[in-house]
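[INFO] parsing input record for MoxR family ATPase
[DEBUG] input buffer:
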Amino acid sequence: MTESVPELAESLGAAGYLADEQLATALFLAVRMAQPILLEGEPGVGKTEAAKALSRALDTPLIRLQCYEGLSLADALYEWNYPRQLLGIRLAEARGEQLSEVDLFSEDYLLARPLLAAIEHPGPRPAVLLIDEVDRADDEFEAFLLELLAEATVTIPELGTRRAVLPPIAVLTSNRTRELHDALKRRCLYQWIAHPGTERVAAIIRLRVPGIADWLADRVAVSVGRFRALELYKPPGVAEAINWAAALHVLGAESLDESALRHTMSAVLKYEEDRTAVEAAGLARVVGDG
Ligand SMILES: Nc1ncnc2c1ncn2[C@@H]1O[C@H](COP(=O)(O)OP(=O)(O)OP(=O)(O)O)[C@@H](O)[C@H]1O
Ligand SMILES: [Mg+2]
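[DEBUG] output buffer:
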């Protein structure tokens, strides 16, 4: 599966993801060098899906941590199961026994959150740990993450230090709402995912919309390129291209003309301002009809 870059690219393709050579190489290195990889790029360009597809290609679980402002270590790492501890105390009391602190802070009452789960994953292959939208988490969290990625250990004061048997393959994604710290970047391989060219968009559509006619996949890909040249507020990305193609396919569109676009515009443009801009540019022109 990971003997060579082309082999990994092929496995990713079988898992429903078309990676160009650069991205396939970066993911290959992340796996083979056991180094975290940071994926950046516009929304909808396939950052999250890259990690998901990698886990499918490697036939290993995906463990996902979605980052957000205020993400706490209790959500990311582990938490004590407080209701269960209380219940344990009550039940022991009913039996006329007493639970010691050591009993209460034991494995039985530990809730592993994604980071701990990834460290403790028993194998046979390392899990893919997706740390999604890391730019949304706070600085302190980033610092903690850095340590965790470097050491692949987690210390639980009551239980001691856990060292990963199989350090996870860490895939971090960022939409660049803020710059990440140099220290974190230094630790990671880096790959910018750009919006793919027309041919690749068409290939992705064919892969993701089974049964779609080749001409329709091609026309959608070309039109998406024209939309993007209009400098819209939210230019359609890969996600929108797939969505639009799927809508046209479901409606049984026999050509991509002004009327077909009018009926399916909601799948490709998500802002009123962008609709107006496209109307002004001329619907027929955008779909290359006349
Ligand atoms: N190279 C690709 N091959 C196949 N499908 C793709 C590819 N790139 C993107 N997609 C599809 O496009 C959609 C959007 O991708 P994804 O959610 O991974 O984007 P993202 O970069 O994580 O976006 P966001 O920043 O909004 O989270 C998904 O349905 C994904 O499967
Ligand atoms: Mg994403």
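[INFO] The longest strand covers residues 169-174.
[INFO] shutting down worker
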